[in-house]
Amino acid sequence: MEGSPVSPGFTLRAVTAADLPTLLPWLRPGAARTLPLAEPTTAATATTATAGDGSAEHWLLVETQGAPRACLRLRRAIGLALPRPWYHVGCVVHAAPALQLQHRQHTLLLGHDHTGASELADIAWQRTGRSLAEQAAALQALVQGAIARIAAQRHQYAATLIVELPGRRDAQGHAPFWHGLGRHFYAGDPEAAAERFGPDWRCHVAALLPRQPVYAAFLSDAAQAAIAQVDDGSRLLLDTLWHAGLRYGHHITVDDGGPVFEAEVDALVGGAAAPPTMGVEGRKSL
Amino acid sequence: MEGSPVSPGFTLRAVTAADLPTLLPWLRPGAARTLPLAEPTTAATATTATAGDGSAEHWLLVETQGAPRACLRLRRAIGLALPRPWYHVGCVVHAAPALQLQHRQHTLLLGHDHTGASELADIAWQRTGRSLAEQAAALQALVQGAIARIAAQRHQYAATLIVELPGRRDAQGHAPFWHGLGRHFYAGDPEAAAERFGPDWRCHVAALLPRQPVYAAFLSDAAQAAIAQVDDGSRLLLDTLWHAGLRYGHHITVDDGGPVFEAEVDALVGGAAAPPTMGVEGRKSL
Amino acid sequence: MLRAARPDDLDALMALAQARAIGISSLPAERAALAEQIAQSQAAFTSDDDASGEERYLFVLQDRRSGRLVGTAGIAAAAGFNDRFYSYRNEFIVQAAPALGARNRIHTLHLCHDLTGVTLLTGFHIDAALADTLAPQLLSRGRLAFIGAQAERFSDRIAAENPGLADDSGRCPFWDAVGQRFFGMAYPEAERLTGGFSPKGWIAELMPQGPIYVPLLPEEAQWSLGQLHPVGDLPFSMLLDEGLDGDTYLNLFDGGPTAEGRVATLKTVRRRRTTPAAPGPEILHIGPPTGGDVPQADEDDTAWCLVDNGRRDGFAALLLPAPEPGMPLLLSDDDIAALGWQDGQPLWAALLDPLHPPVEVDA
Amino acid sequence: MLRAARPDDLDALMALAQARAIGISSLPAERAALAEQIAQSQAAFTSDDDASGEERYLFVLQDRRSGRLVGTAGIAAAAGFNDRFYSYRNEFIVQAAPALGARNRIHTLHLCHDLTGVTLLTGFHIDAALADTLAPQLLSRGRLAFIGAQAERFSDRIAAENPGLADDSGRCPFWDAVGQRFFGMAYPEAERLTGGFSPKGWIAELMPQGPIYVPLLPEEAQWSLGQLHPVGDLPFSMLLDEGLDGDTYLNLFDGGPTAEGRVATLKTVRRRRTTPAAPGPEILHIGPPTGGDVPQADEDDTAWCLVDNGRRDGFAALLLPAPEPGMPLLLSDDDIAALGWQDGQPLWAALLDPLHPPVEVDA
């Protein structure tokens, strides 16, 4: 697949083996590190009607003046082979009118709400030696390039596009959200598990996590404060995605509690912008 | 409060007692039918920091050539005095790899996720004797007028604006969604309860509804098919809201299962369109 | 002797309520409320009405020699009468992630009202000086004999709430970890608001409706689950000995254990059977001054039995030396008067275990 | 007599497995699998190893006169050994909406593995001609006597799954309303996949994890909850009579009742005690040809007792006429041989209730 120009000066193209030495150092621990298989890796018995014509995943980069600046994985439909978990952040109000008491509580409910959505994953970029402006330009070119790629093959992608943003972590790379919640249900080291199993480790660990709604009030203050918060180092990414039209939709990742940004693909690509005829529960039809 | 011009030919103004004979026949059974109190009706002990300077609710209409055409209630922050329930429509995947079985299931979780949001409620319009085009123009003027009103007093409104759309009902006014779910937990007649208690009846009946996630698979086919579906008679409203930028966010009403449309207020009003600095779980700060 | 409380017990009960020496008191400290409770109890013991579940029975333990009241305990016919009676139930969920080679046994607390309608043992209070005698046995097991005798007025299940860990300053690890977060008030305040135990329906509306995941609680709170406040040791241990299960249910407020079981399987109810009786030649009972007619635990090898007259109106129970096999129970004049017994009337007896049992009696 | 299955019982057990006349069979229909099960049982009865919970004991009921096998039943030492054992637990939630004047008692089913590790009674199969004799008592209660005798090899709780409503065509209202929706397959197919009862952990992964709200189920399915398939009537009624609770747990697949209780409270275990025995002057046992040495229910007023030798290796149990009070149990030569008894060895006896009881024996 040959490169295509995106923002002025940037070209989007598929990652090749030759790029790996440049790209791998950019990736977060636990990110996927290998080139996608030529054939869909998903499939299985799932009802993935739209999968089949083309690759389930593309690893793309943008380069300028021949040098890669940022990369991401574009996935057509996630969670089909291995269900991927998120927490939905809900709200319940407990009221005792007789006592004039009313308390609003956040709840976290484990689920697979975004199953079947398309995804931009493992967004990474060159930071060292680049000004913030240069980084922002590269990220914007990358995200817009990926959206353009989706627009060009609209039928291969789902109605919704999501991006998981890195949640808050301390200097040692530990996530207070995990420390306050996940740790109590899986005693192993999450960073080690992520290294070993790659991004799928969250699918595996979900089997150990609470299946009934968890009241956020039972989490430590630090864990509560980290719900849907983006890590400092990803502020630029949040900004880029927000300006591209993606928004937080009250889902977070199960490991570091980072927010999941989402958007209607049609709204992003400026394509078939017509309201749904009657049905609006889009997940049903997938 | 005097009227303000909105779309060409339409004026938005507050409903007065003199308008009631015209407006009341437009309203759905169970809609609020009285003029808002001058003072906030909410308040109570809830942490409604922003409430207090102005009315909690405005009943607005658009008129053209001196004749009212459509009306709605604009509420600043809902669910504070009496928690309002919705179901969040989630998704879980049950997988038994050993059997090569995988099933995607919808779940309904009762909650108060939109507590504190602003709302456009009881949207009603003159249908008799008006062409669809006329109705559409009136609705568009009404919704845009309400959004402009919010923009003009931005600080009085919440970050999110919601609209509950009427769910599917049969010719007798019965909702298959209620028949498949709510009826099993409250034996009374929902229409009679709505007439008697007004819109608050849903807040009362929520105390009887399931508090743990309900698998949609246990509902009748008709009830499942009605999840997040808009009643035929409200197709025009769905269209208007969609074009105004509101979207279904996987919440439905507890009585007829109609979808709740939502939007970021800032995105609608074109106001302070800056990404969140760090925190993105907006409900926290309310 | 154990008998129903009477209006003229008011002063003595006031004194007991204020002493709160050993055990769990559910007696109101206000005189008028206490008088009302006695009246309510008297109606429960004597009314001809069918049982509604609303009855509350109040017993007193009286030293026959001195006439002094030395203990009290109660029964509520149906827990949560007219409303739900909430508890937490301990549950354990095992989840496994084969890919990670991990397996997890998760302790959760489940808000339930399983015990609604169950007969509830309330209060248990005895003069501290009698703690090591058989007097607590009479107070605790005599009340169970009454339930066995009047089974049609009670549920087939009984339960008893027991105080959890809380210090005098009102610090309660369980409350601080759970209730505090949902009530937004300290334990003493909540206790005042609700009158202590047995939270009402509307209170539970404030509590989390789904399971509470215990691993998320602070360690001190986890450790306090099902832990008994020392004041409850004596009554709780006797209920466990009767066969109640103390591991399943917890109090919603302080996390104390709520013992629960079937009436038919209680030791006293199983052992209780009609016994022939006859006037005896003399007064048989010996005992130290403090214990009155209640024998000290380590006094001798006498086998004792709990004797009751099976009545509702006029209920009385005593501890008497167990008769030899095949022999009738011998009653002194004082016993006869206490039991309101006449020759030819039935009596019931249930053998007590020796306090330091050489062998298990009920093999 | 009731005894452990032996390899040479294979043919007779094959015949029983294929007959499936009355009761619940968990015997495999394949000869090799059955032989394996007998071998496994023999190891459980005879091995010197400490109990691991994996043991499965298989009993046969043998007509002493004809030598014919007329029944079989089994025990699994720990339900769900090495994995979770899933059930539904009945729960009732009361919710109220005071503003609407409405109040609701909601029945829910709760996926749980409360019974993991509990000793499980498996299978129960008896020759249809013996249904009205005391033979089923020997088969059912003799197995409980074994558990009482070998308590250290079993859990202190036992449970028994009982078949729910399903017709021969495989229509099962409960499965159709619940399992079908989550498995996407018909009942017979699921049963084949899982080998019948006792769903394994990975199967439960497909089932709803939260409570099932019963009011949402079709009426036929609601009505079938906890309903017993007629083939289970006989064994189930004896377990209820023993004191097991049949109202709390349901089978995950067909909604049949899973009886559950504490070993210590079982009627047979409570009544079972050592009894003096002596060789008798003659063979005492009478009975019709069909019943062999097993008496007919309506035969006479003889009080019968269940006698066992308390052994693991060489376990045997018989029904014998109860001795008069104070008298030893009289044993015929045949009894002595069946029990492997020698003078001076202990025997245990538990009185059976008369089949048409004039009074409650265990008051």
Give the number of DSSP strands of chain C.
17
Instruction: Please give the alpha-carbon distance between the first and last residues of chain C.
Output: 29 Å
- Strand order in the sheet with the most strands of chain A: 1-2-3-4-7-8-11-10-5-6-9
Largest sheet of chain C: 15 strands, mixed
Following the backbone from N to C, one meets helices and strands of chain C in this order, namely: EHEHEEEEEHEHHHHEHHEEHEEEEEHE
Overall pLDDT level of chain C: 84
Rg calc of chain A: 19 Å
CATH-scheme architecture of the largest domain in chain C: 3-Layer(aba) Sandwich
Number of strands of chain A: 11
Q: For the record, give the distance between the C-alpha atoms at the N and C termini of chain A, rounded to a whole number.
A: 28 Å
Q: Give the overall average pLDDT of chain A.
A: 86
What proportion strand of chain A? 25-35%
Contiguous uncertain segments of 5+ residues of chain C:
286-292, 357-363
- The total domain count of chain A is 1
Q: What gross morphology of chain A would you assign?
A: globular
Please describe the biggest sheet of chain A, giving its number of strands, its sense, and whether it closes into a barrel.
11 strands, mixed
What is the number of helical segments of chain A per DSSP (H or I, 4+ residues)? 9
Largest interface: A-B, 54 and 54 residues
Explain what the structure shows.
The complex is a heterotetramer, with two copies of chain A (286 residues) and two copies of chain C (363 residues). Chain A has 286 residues and is an alpha+beta fold. Chain A has one domain (4-271). Chain A is 23% helix and 25% strand. Chain A has nine helices and eleven strands. An eleven-stranded mixed β-sheet of chain A has the order 1-2-3-4-7-8-11-10-5-6-9. The longest helix of chain A is centred in the middle third of the chain and has 21 residues, at 132-152. The two termini of chain A are 28 Å apart. The relative contact order of chain A is 0.17. The model of chain A is unreliable at 40-53 and 282-286 (pLDDT under 50). Chain C has 363 residues and is α+β, with helices and mostly antiparallel strands. Chain C folds into two domains: 2-88 and 111-268, Gcn5-related N-acetyltransferase (GNAT) (Aminopeptidase, 3-Layer(aba) Sandwich), CATH 3.40.630.30; 271-351, Barwin-like endoglucanases (Beta Barrel), CATH 2.40.40. In chain C, helix 3 packs across helix 9. The longest helix of chain C is centred in the N-terminal third of the chain and has 16 residues, at 31-46. In chain C, 49% of the residues are buried. Chains in contact: A-B, A-C, B-D, C-D. Chains C, D: Its EC number is 2.3.1.109. Chains C, D: Pfam families: AstA. Chains C, D: This is Arginine N-succinyltransferase.
